[in-house]
Write a structure and sequence with these properties.
- The structure is a single chain.
- This protein is an all-alpha fold and 67 residues long.
- The longest helix is centred in the first third of the chain and has 13 residues.
Length: 67
């Protein structure tokens, strides 16, 4: 039996918070991507398009930037 998903989180606010914190820390997407072993395009998708990051990346970004 498939469970219905009742709540969908909008990651746009999270992406904007990451973008703001990344810029404040003086990091480019390329530099952050290199440190986290991610493509800069993936970070663009998270920051600007509200793409749902993987759970691991979500926690890494959240902890890195205290969001």
């Amino acid at each position: 039996m498939k469970r219905e998903v009742e709540f969908v989180y909008d990651f746009k606010a999270f992406g904007q918070a990451i973008k703001k914190a990344r810029r404040a820390a003086g990091y480019s997407r390329k530099k952050l991507g290199h440190e986290l072993n991610l493509a800069p395009r993936y970070l663009v998708s998270i920051e600007n398009e509200g793409q749902h990051p993987s759970l691991q990346i979500f926690f890494e970004l959240m902890l890195r930037y205290d969001i």
